[in-house]
């Protein structure tokens, strides 16, 4: 699965799953623009990865239209065109439904869902223009979650936003199919990022997570990156409008499983 000669934008690419995706795409030959609000982490990522290929960083709040416009423009200025987009930026906010504020609901929805719309539309417009100039159609991957379907009581805006991401993926795929642009999503289960770091040192939490994970372990960010790279590559040339759940088997589970101590 090589991505030689392709240019990708990865939002939320300075940490966690996003950073793993950046590393994998660069390893596969792509040039990558990292977009993130964490400037220190973005600079560190470029320094750590740049020896393996071309990677740059742009500070951007991808829930803001002007920042998205500037991100696309800077990527084109740096690399000439954009062939791939990974809408990975995402945040969580834990609160009981009765206590959740409008501001926190809007903040999560803006980062997780609105940004995928803004970036997807801006990059797709560029892709369509480039197709008219002879380029091959590009590909877009949105980061969804098993929580597009499985709800968590105290993760109201996160669950709602991920349900929206999966529907947005289908709408984008149908709308852009006429141009040959493919749009898919990845739905991670429990992945060992900073958000799950507490699980490793908490036996009760670890048991709770693993009891609903048939493969019996927490996933690694590199495993989500591998699925993303596949969907962006020509190996997935007949795949569009799909959400692939990389979740250790959790989605079809309707019971808990024993956990080895």
From TrEMBL:
Record's keyword terms, sorted: Oxidoreductase
InterPro entries: KR_dom (IPR057326), NAD(P)-bd_dom_sf (IPR036291), Sc_DH/Rdtase_CS (IPR020904), SDR_fam (IPR002347)
Superkingdom field: Bacteria
Residues covered by the Ketoreductase domain: 6-189
Family matches, as Pfam families: adh_short_C2 (PF13561)
SMART domains in alphabetical order: PKS_KR
NCBIfam families, sorted: PRK07231.1
Family, similarity comment: Belongs to the short-chain dehydrogenases/reductases (SDR) family.
Name by which UniProt lists this protein: SDR family oxidoreductase
Organism annotation: Hoeflea ulvae
